[in-house]
Design brief:
By secondary structure, the protein is mainly α. It has two domains: 81 residues, no CATH class; 94 residues. Helix content is 72%, strand content 0%. It has eight helices and no strands. Helix 3 crosses helix 8, helix 4 crosses helix 5 and helix 4 packs across helix 8.
Length: 190
């Protein structure tokens, strides 16, 4: 398998893990550079070893970063719902902490709408990195969350931009680790 991006590497590694059901990253890491070319190599095992390199690199990240990688870049199948659920639990906790740290005191109903805006923002981000199009416009977000247009700029745009930046930060960390692992093992074709 040759990868063209770190995003593709994560997606393909998890897709192969799902298909093979027996992928154990610890057992599949080959020392040094993975090479193809010997006549007796079973290509499926080489692909599994390459996927193991990716999964091993992901295992070095913090749990919320691992869950982000699965949620944002892995195939969208029910097998990975637990990781996706853990990502949204972390996200909700992160929003709660930032709401408490905020200089503004938000009413509980507004805080709930902020959580909804943040959830739709990360869904928008995931959709955008896959398709180069946003899933929801600001107008649709306001409608789904029951936000009055006049309140959008005052109470919610800050949170939208904060979490778009947060998604960028998560992606930067995760994709850098994967790209470095791919380069070390000669798996990326830039």
């Amino acid at each position: 398998m040759k990868f063209y991006s770190a995003r593709q590497a994560i997606h393909d590694a998890y897709a192969l893990a799902f298909l093979s059901k027996s992928l154990d990253a610890g057992q599949l890491i080959a020392p040094g550079k993975i090479t193809k070319g010997a006549k007796d190599i079973n290509w499926h095992h080489v692909d599994q070893a390459e996927a193991g390199v990716i999964l091993h690199a992901l295992s070095t990240l913090q749990p919320h970063q691992q869950n982000w990688a699965v949620w944002c870049h892995a195939p969208r199948i029910s097998e990975y719902l637990p990781e996706q659920g853990r990502f949204f639990t972390w996200l909700n906790d992160d929003v709660s902490i930032r709401l408490l740290e905020s200089e503004r005191h938000y009413r509980p109903a507004t805080a709930d709408k902020i959580r909804d805006v943040v959830a739709l923002t990360v869904l928008n981000y995931r959709h955008f990195v896959s398709t180069d199009q946003y899933l929801y416009s600001d107008r649709e977000v306001r409608k789904r969350c029951g936000i009055i247009r006049q309140n959008w700029c005052r109470d919610f745009v800050f949170w939208k931009h904060l979490y778009l930046n947060r998604c960028d930060q998560l992606d930067r960390v995760v994709l850098t680790v994967i790209a470095d692992a791919c380069k070390r093992h000669g798996l990326i074709d830039l």
